[in-house]
Amino acid sequence: MRILITGATGQVGRKVVENLKSDSSLEVIAAVRSKKKGESLGVQFVELDLDRIETFAPALQGIDRVFLMTGYTVDMMRQSKAFLDEAAKANVRHVVHLGACGDDEATVAHWVWHQLVERYIEWRGFSFTHLRPEQFMQNLLGYSGKPTVVNGVIEQYFGQARLSWVDCEDVAEVAAVSLRDAEAHNGQTYRMGYDAQSLNDVARILSEVIGQPFRYDSRPPEEFLAKVLAAGADPAYMNCVYQHYFAYAQGKIPHPDQVFDNFERLTGRKPVTWEAFAKKHADTFRAGFTRP
Ligand SMILES: NC(=O)c1ccc[n+]([C@@H]2O[C@H](COP(=O)([O-])OP(=O)(O)OC[C@H]3O[C@@H](n4cnc5c(N)ncnc54)[C@H](OP(=O)(O)O)[C@@H]3O)[C@@H](O)[C@H]2O)c1
Predict the structure, then answer these.
(1) Residue 34 Cβ contacting ligand 1 at under 6 Å
(2) 208: three-class secondary structure by DSSP
(3) I need a labelling partner for 34 at 20 to 30 A (CA). Which of 111, 159, 270, 274 fits?
(4) Interval 206-232: pLDDT, tens
Protein backbone atom coordinates (compact mmCIF):
# COMPACT_ATOMS: atom_id res chain seq x y z
CA MET A 1 0.00 0.00 0.00
CA ARG A 2 1.71 3.20 -1.21
CA ILE A 3 0.51 6.45 0.33
CA LEU A 4 1.54 9.89 -0.91
CA ILE A 5 1.42 12.72 1.63
CA THR A 6 1.25 16.21 0.11
CA GLY A 7 2.26 19.19 2.25
CA ALA A 8 4.51 16.78 4.14
CA THR A 9 6.63 19.65 5.47
CA GLY A 10 3.62 21.59 6.79
CA GLN A 11 1.96 21.62 10.20
CA VAL A 12 -0.56 18.88 9.43
CA GLY A 13 1.25 16.90 6.72
CA ARG A 14 4.43 16.45 8.79
CA LYS A 15 2.36 14.87 11.57
CA VAL A 16 0.50 12.63 9.11
CA VAL A 17 3.90 11.29 8.02
CA GLU A 18 4.93 10.78 11.66
CA ASN A 19 1.73 8.88 12.37
CA LEU A 20 2.17 6.48 9.46
CA LYS A 21 5.89 5.98 9.07
CA SER A 22 6.30 3.25 11.69
CA ASP A 23 3.60 1.08 10.05
CA SER A 24 5.56 -1.55 8.14
CA SER A 25 2.50 -2.56 6.09
CA LEU A 26 2.56 0.85 4.39
CA GLU A 27 4.95 2.61 2.08
CA VAL A 28 4.77 6.25 3.03
CA ILE A 29 6.05 8.76 0.50
CA ALA A 30 6.38 12.42 1.37
CA ALA A 31 5.74 14.90 -1.42
CA VAL A 32 8.06 17.88 -0.98
CA ARG A 33 9.27 20.91 -2.87
CA SER A 34 12.70 20.96 -1.26
CA LYS A 35 15.12 18.05 -1.08
CA LYS A 36 16.65 19.46 2.09
CA LYS A 37 13.28 19.52 3.87
CA GLY A 38 12.47 16.05 2.52
CA GLU A 39 15.60 14.61 4.08
CA SER A 40 14.45 15.76 7.53
CA LEU A 41 11.30 13.61 7.41
CA GLY A 42 12.82 10.15 7.77
CA VAL A 43 10.75 8.58 4.95
CA GLN A 44 11.05 8.25 1.19
CA PHE A 45 10.27 11.48 -0.57
CA VAL A 46 9.51 12.68 -4.08
CA GLU A 47 9.48 16.11 -5.61
CA LEU A 48 6.00 17.57 -6.00
CA ASP A 49 5.25 21.19 -6.72
CA LEU A 50 1.54 21.85 -7.08
CA ASP A 51 2.38 24.71 -9.42
CA ARG A 52 4.37 22.43 -11.74
CA ILE A 53 2.11 19.86 -13.37
CA GLU A 54 5.11 18.02 -14.81
CA THR A 55 6.03 16.89 -11.25
CA PHE A 56 2.64 15.18 -10.70
CA ALA A 57 2.90 12.00 -12.79
CA PRO A 58 6.30 10.86 -11.43
CA ALA A 59 5.16 11.55 -7.85
CA LEU A 60 1.90 9.63 -8.36
CA GLN A 61 3.40 6.55 -9.99
CA GLY A 62 2.17 3.41 -8.18
CA ILE A 63 0.34 5.42 -5.49
CA ASP A 64 -2.84 3.90 -4.00
CA ARG A 65 -3.91 6.57 -1.52
CA VAL A 66 -3.27 10.28 -1.20
CA PHE A 67 -3.42 12.87 1.54
CA LEU A 68 -4.25 16.07 -0.33
CA MET A 69 -3.65 19.41 1.33
CA THR A 70 -3.03 22.82 -0.16
CA GLY A 71 -1.62 26.01 1.28
CA TYR A 72 -3.20 29.36 2.10
CA THR A 73 -3.77 30.47 -1.50
CA VAL A 74 -6.62 30.68 -3.99
CA ASP A 75 -4.35 28.65 -6.27
CA MET A 76 -5.60 25.70 -4.20
CA MET A 77 -8.53 25.38 -6.64
CA ARG A 78 -6.41 25.12 -9.77
CA GLN A 79 -3.75 23.02 -7.98
CA SER A 80 -6.27 20.55 -6.55
CA LYS A 81 -8.09 20.04 -9.85
CA ALA A 82 -4.88 19.45 -11.81
CA PHE A 83 -3.54 17.12 -9.12
CA LEU A 84 -6.77 15.11 -8.92
CA ASP A 85 -6.95 14.79 -12.70
CA GLU A 86 -3.46 13.32 -12.70
CA ALA A 87 -4.21 11.13 -9.65
CA ALA A 88 -7.19 9.63 -11.49
CA LYS A 89 -4.94 8.81 -14.46
CA ALA A 90 -2.48 7.16 -12.06
CA ASN A 91 -5.32 4.99 -10.65
CA VAL A 92 -5.15 6.43 -7.15
CA ARG A 93 -8.07 4.92 -5.24
CA HIS A 94 -8.60 6.91 -2.05
CA VAL A 95 -8.18 10.62 -1.32
CA VAL A 96 -8.14 12.10 2.18
CA HIS A 97 -8.63 15.83 1.76
CA LEU A 98 -7.75 18.52 4.27
CA GLY A 99 -10.57 21.02 4.00
CA ALA A 100 -11.78 23.74 6.33
CA CYS A 101 -14.53 24.78 8.72
CA GLY A 102 -18.26 24.83 8.36
CA ASP A 103 -21.21 22.71 7.32
CA ASP A 104 -22.57 22.38 3.79
CA GLU A 105 -24.42 25.71 4.11
CA ALA A 106 -21.17 27.64 4.68
CA THR A 107 -20.71 30.84 2.68
CA VAL A 108 -17.21 31.89 3.84
CA ALA A 109 -15.29 31.95 0.57
CA HIS A 110 -12.18 29.91 1.36
CA TRP A 111 -14.26 27.27 3.18
CA VAL A 112 -16.49 27.03 0.11
CA TRP A 113 -13.44 26.59 -2.13
CA HIS A 114 -12.52 23.54 -0.06
CA GLN A 115 -16.06 22.19 -0.37
CA LEU A 116 -15.88 22.57 -4.16
CA VAL A 117 -12.67 20.54 -4.11
CA GLU A 118 -14.52 17.89 -2.06
CA ARG A 119 -17.26 17.75 -4.69
CA TYR A 120 -14.62 17.42 -7.43
CA ILE A 121 -12.99 14.52 -5.58
CA GLU A 122 -16.37 12.78 -5.47
CA TRP A 123 -17.23 13.61 -9.11
CA ARG A 124 -13.88 12.18 -10.21
CA GLY A 125 -14.92 8.86 -8.65
CA PHE A 126 -12.30 8.47 -5.92
CA SER A 127 -13.24 6.89 -2.66
CA PHE A 128 -12.75 9.69 -0.16
CA THR A 129 -12.58 11.01 3.37
CA HIS A 130 -13.16 14.74 3.84
CA LEU A 131 -11.62 16.40 6.88
CA ARG A 132 -13.13 19.70 7.98
CA PRO A 133 -11.19 21.13 10.88
CA GLU A 134 -12.30 24.26 12.71
CA GLN A 135 -9.72 26.76 14.04
CA PHE A 136 -6.23 25.36 14.48
CA MET A 137 -4.92 25.92 18.01
CA GLN A 138 -1.55 26.38 16.30
CA ASN A 139 -2.79 29.75 14.96
CA LEU A 140 -1.98 31.08 18.41
CA LEU A 141 1.63 29.96 18.12
CA GLY A 142 2.01 31.94 14.89
CA TYR A 143 0.32 32.60 11.57
CA SER A 144 1.73 33.41 8.17
CA GLY A 145 5.25 33.52 9.58
CA LYS A 146 4.43 35.96 12.42
CA PRO A 147 4.07 35.22 16.15
CA THR A 148 0.52 35.62 17.49
CA VAL A 149 1.38 36.29 21.14
CA VAL A 150 3.48 39.39 21.65
CA ASN A 151 4.41 40.50 25.16
CA GLY A 152 1.65 38.34 26.64
CA VAL A 153 -1.00 39.82 24.37
CA ILE A 154 -2.94 37.54 22.03
CA GLU A 155 -3.55 39.66 18.98
CA GLN A 156 -6.53 38.29 17.07
CA TYR A 157 -9.45 39.62 15.07
CA PHE A 158 -12.54 37.58 16.01
CA GLY A 159 -14.20 40.14 18.30
CA GLN A 160 -15.86 38.33 21.20
CA ALA A 161 -16.84 35.22 19.23
CA ARG A 162 -16.63 31.85 20.93
CA LEU A 163 -14.80 29.48 18.60
CA SER A 164 -14.37 25.78 18.08
CA TRP A 165 -10.69 24.72 18.16
CA VAL A 166 -8.64 21.68 17.16
CA ASP A 167 -4.97 20.74 17.52
CA CYS A 168 -3.36 20.08 14.09
CA GLU A 169 -1.89 16.92 15.56
CA ASP A 170 -5.41 15.60 16.13
CA VAL A 171 -6.30 16.48 12.54
CA ALA A 172 -3.22 14.58 11.38
CA GLU A 173 -4.14 11.56 13.46
CA VAL A 174 -7.59 11.33 11.90
CA ALA A 175 -6.01 11.76 8.47
CA ALA A 176 -3.63 8.89 9.24
CA VAL A 177 -6.45 6.65 10.49
CA SER A 178 -8.45 7.40 7.32
CA LEU A 179 -5.47 6.67 5.07
CA ARG A 180 -4.62 3.44 6.85
CA ASP A 181 -8.15 2.03 6.77
CA ALA A 182 -9.63 3.68 3.69
CA GLU A 183 -12.55 1.27 3.40
CA ALA A 184 -13.83 2.00 6.88
CA HIS A 185 -13.61 5.75 6.31
CA ASN A 186 -14.78 5.89 2.71
CA GLY A 187 -17.56 8.41 2.11
CA GLN A 188 -17.13 10.11 5.47
CA THR A 189 -16.88 13.81 6.25
CA TYR A 190 -15.27 14.42 9.62
CA ARG A 191 -15.84 17.83 11.13
CA MET A 192 -13.21 18.46 13.74
CA GLY A 193 -13.42 20.98 16.55
CA TYR A 194 -13.20 19.73 20.10
CA ASP A 195 -12.80 22.62 22.51
CA ALA A 196 -15.03 25.72 22.34
CA GLN A 197 -13.45 28.80 23.86
CA SER A 198 -13.52 32.54 23.32
CA LEU A 199 -10.11 34.17 23.07
CA ASN A 200 -10.66 35.68 26.53
CA ASP A 201 -11.12 32.10 27.79
CA VAL A 202 -7.95 31.02 25.97
CA ALA A 203 -6.04 33.91 27.60
CA ARG A 204 -7.31 32.79 31.00
CA ILE A 205 -6.28 29.18 30.37
CA LEU A 206 -2.82 30.27 29.18
CA SER A 207 -2.41 32.48 32.26
CA GLU A 208 -3.28 29.57 34.55
CA VAL A 209 -1.02 27.06 32.79
CA ILE A 210 1.95 29.32 32.05
CA GLY A 211 1.69 31.38 35.24
CA GLN A 212 1.91 34.72 33.44
CA PRO A 213 -0.93 37.19 32.76
CA PHE A 214 -1.96 36.68 29.13
CA ARG A 215 -4.74 38.79 27.66
CA TYR A 216 -6.67 38.97 24.40
CA ASP A 217 -6.56 42.16 22.42
CA SER A 218 -9.33 42.19 19.80
CA ARG A 219 -7.61 43.99 16.95
CA PRO A 220 -9.22 45.46 13.80
CA PRO A 221 -9.13 43.01 10.86
CA GLU A 222 -7.49 45.75 8.72
CA GLU A 223 -4.38 45.26 10.84
CA PHE A 224 -4.39 41.54 10.04
CA LEU A 225 -4.65 42.18 6.32
CA ALA A 226 -1.80 44.71 6.29
CA LYS A 227 0.41 42.35 8.32
CA VAL A 228 -0.10 39.21 6.24
CA LEU A 229 0.17 41.05 2.93
CA ALA A 230 3.45 42.62 4.09
CA ALA A 231 4.62 39.07 4.93
CA GLY A 232 3.94 38.06 1.30
CA ALA A 233 0.73 36.02 1.79
CA ASP A 234 -1.73 35.51 -1.08
CA PRO A 235 -4.06 38.56 -1.26
CA ALA A 236 -7.06 36.60 -2.61
CA TYR A 237 -7.02 34.05 0.22
CA MET A 238 -6.20 36.60 2.90
CA ASN A 239 -8.99 38.91 1.76
CA CYS A 240 -11.39 36.06 2.48
CA VAL A 241 -9.87 35.52 5.92
CA TYR A 242 -10.12 39.29 6.52
CA GLN A 243 -13.81 39.28 5.54
CA HIS A 244 -14.64 36.29 7.68
CA TYR A 245 -13.32 38.04 10.81
CA PHE A 246 -16.16 40.60 10.45
CA ALA A 247 -18.68 37.79 10.05
CA TYR A 248 -17.42 36.13 13.25
CA ALA A 249 -17.40 39.38 15.22
CA GLN A 250 -20.93 40.25 14.04
CA GLY A 251 -22.28 36.80 14.92
CA LYS A 252 -22.97 35.95 11.28
CA ILE A 253 -21.16 32.60 11.30
CA PRO A 254 -23.69 29.93 12.33
CA HIS A 255 -22.59 27.81 15.32
CA PRO A 256 -18.95 28.97 15.44
CA ASP A 257 -18.50 27.09 18.72
CA GLN A 258 -19.93 23.76 17.59
CA VAL A 259 -17.89 20.81 18.88
CA PHE A 260 -17.95 17.25 17.65
CA ASP A 261 -17.88 13.86 19.37
CA ASN A 262 -16.19 11.78 16.67
CA PHE A 263 -12.56 11.93 17.79
CA GLU A 264 -12.48 9.27 20.48
CA ARG A 265 -14.38 6.86 18.26
CA LEU A 266 -11.90 7.46 15.43
CA THR A 267 -8.65 7.32 17.38
CA GLY A 268 -9.37 5.69 20.74
CA ARG A 269 -8.19 8.70 22.73
CA LYS A 270 -9.56 12.05 23.82
CA PRO A 271 -8.88 15.15 21.70
CA VAL A 272 -6.46 17.82 22.88
CA THR A 273 -8.03 20.59 24.95
CA TRP A 274 -6.74 24.14 25.26
CA GLU A 275 -5.32 23.28 28.66
CA ALA A 276 -3.36 20.33 27.23
CA PHE A 277 -2.25 22.38 24.24
CA ALA A 278 -0.96 25.16 26.52
CA LYS A 279 1.04 22.60 28.52
CA LYS A 280 2.44 20.98 25.38
CA HIS A 281 3.59 24.34 23.97
CA ALA A 282 4.41 26.04 27.26
CA ASP A 283 7.91 27.05 26.11
CA THR A 284 6.60 28.75 22.98
CA PHE A 285 3.86 30.56 24.89
CA ARG A 286 6.34 31.60 27.57
CA ALA A 287 8.64 32.98 24.85
CA GLY A 288 5.62 34.85 23.50
CA PHE A 289 5.24 36.51 26.85
CA THR A 290 8.76 37.89 26.81
CA ARG A 291 8.71 38.76 23.07
CA PRO A 292 8.96 42.56 22.83
N1 LIG B 1 -5.26 27.64 10.14
C2 LIG B 1 -6.46 27.18 10.41
O3 LIG B 1 -7.07 27.51 11.45
C4 LIG B 1 -7.12 26.21 9.47
C5 LIG B 1 -8.37 25.71 9.83
C6 LIG B 1 -9.01 24.81 8.97
C7 LIG B 1 -8.38 24.43 7.80
N8 LIG B 1 -7.15 24.93 7.47
C9 LIG B 1 -6.54 24.51 6.19
O10 LIG B 1 -5.29 23.90 6.44
C11 LIG B 1 -4.49 24.03 5.28
C12 LIG B 1 -3.10 24.48 5.67
O13 LIG B 1 -2.53 23.46 6.47
P14 LIG B 1 -1.17 23.70 7.28
O15 LIG B 1 -1.41 24.77 8.30
O16 LIG B 1 -0.65 22.38 7.69
O17 LIG B 1 -0.25 24.31 6.14
P18 LIG B 1 1.24 24.85 6.29
O19 LIG B 1 1.85 24.49 7.61
O20 LIG B 1 1.24 26.28 5.85
O21 LIG B 1 2.01 23.97 5.20
C22 LIG B 1 1.81 24.14 3.84
C23 LIG B 1 2.41 22.93 3.16
O24 LIG B 1 2.08 22.98 1.77
C25 LIG B 1 3.27 22.93 1.02
N26 LIG B 1 3.10 23.70 -0.20
C27 LIG B 1 2.78 25.01 -0.32
N28 LIG B 1 2.73 25.34 -1.61
C29 LIG B 1 3.02 24.23 -2.33
C30 LIG B 1 3.16 23.93 -3.70
N31 LIG B 1 2.99 24.87 -4.64
N32 LIG B 1 3.48 22.68 -4.06
C33 LIG B 1 3.68 21.72 -3.14
N34 LIG B 1 3.58 21.93 -1.83
C35 LIG B 1 3.25 23.18 -1.42
C36 LIG B 1 4.34 23.53 1.93
O37 LIG B 1 5.61 23.13 1.47
P38 LIG B 1 6.96 23.98 1.75
O39 LIG B 1 7.50 23.48 3.07
O40 LIG B 1 7.82 23.63 0.60
O41 LIG B 1 6.57 25.43 1.79
C42 LIG B 1 3.93 22.90 3.25
O43 LIG B 1 4.37 21.57 3.32
C44 LIG B 1 -5.18 25.03 4.36
O45 LIG B 1 -5.80 24.36 3.30
C46 LIG B 1 -6.23 25.66 5.27
O47 LIG B 1 -7.38 26.09 4.56
C48 LIG B 1 -6.51 25.79 8.28
Answers:
(1) yes
(2) helix
(3) 111
(4) 999 999 999 999 999 999 999 999 999
| Structural domain boundaries enclosing 37 | 2-136+166-193+257-272
Pocket test residue of 4, 5, 6, 11 for ligand 1, highest count of atoms within 8 A of CB: 11
Q: What is the CATH number of the domain that holds 100?
A: 3.40.50.720
The closest alpha carbon to 238, from 119, 33, 48, 76, belongs to 76
pLDDT band at 146 (very low <50, low <70, confident <90, very high): confident
The answer as to whether 209 is a domain residue is no
On whether residue 290 sits in a domain, the answer given is no
State residue 38's pLDDT score: 95
* DSSP-assigned letters across all residues of 46-82: EE--TT-GGGHHHHHTT--EEEE---SSTHHHHHHHH
Does residue 133 have its Cβ closer than 6 Å to ligand 1?
yes
Write out pLDDT tens, residues 159-183.
Answer: 999 999 999 999 999 999 999 999 9
